[in-house]
Write a sequence for this structure.
């Protein structure tokens, strides 16, 4: 009888050890899954950090070059004004050469002028300096005081413009004139 009990006992010990090993294995699998998920989260966070850092670095470089290009645009505008003046031929050719080189640099950096005259006023591209009565449709740009520019499709300097406003009818214009005169008389 001892011999039958011993194999049963050994069998139960084996079963208990197997159950313990299976339990340990399940526990280790669960722990391995948790570590895997944690590693995946850390990896995703690192990738997001790397992308954000690269984007911030790129934006910083873009802003720095934008500041320099704005200064170059001011020089470019000055050269254009100079070319619209009477100049000796030697000075004109030198200014034209410099103007052409700056224009090439601006073009390479994807700096483009904003079209303004004849366009409808757009607050995302234009800054209104003045409005004048005109036969043009209301809010149409009739004059550009300072040219605006975009860089990579983003406005870096707004166009300073004059827009059209409706002409007052003559009767209303006369009434306004009379009111001004009456106000001046009242004050005296």
């Amino acid at each position: 009888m001892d011999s039958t009990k011993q194999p049963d006992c050994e069998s139960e010990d084996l079963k208990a050890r197997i159950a313990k090993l299976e339990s340990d294995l399940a526990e280790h699998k669960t722990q391995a899954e948790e570590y895997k998920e944690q590693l995946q989260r850390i990896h995703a966070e690192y990738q997001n950090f790397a992308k954000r850092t690269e984007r911030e670095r790129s934006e910083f470089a873009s802003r720095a070059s934008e500041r320099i290009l704005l200064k170059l645009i001011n020089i470019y505008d000055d050269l254009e004004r100079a070319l619209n003046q009477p100049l000796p031929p030697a000075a004109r050719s030198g200014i034209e050469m410099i103007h052409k080189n700056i224009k090439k640099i601006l073009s390479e950096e994807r700096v483009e002028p904003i079209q303004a005259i004849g366009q409808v006023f757009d607050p995302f591209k234009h800054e209104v300096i003045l409005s004048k009565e005109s036969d043009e449709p209301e809010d149409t740009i009739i004059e550009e005081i300072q040219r605006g520019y975009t860089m990579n499709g983003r406005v870096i300097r707004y166009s300073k413009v004059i827009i059209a406003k409706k002409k007052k009818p003559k009767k209303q214009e006369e009434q306004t004139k009379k009111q001004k005169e009456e106000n001046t008389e009242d004050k005296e």
Notes: The helical segments are 2-83, 89-108, 170-187.
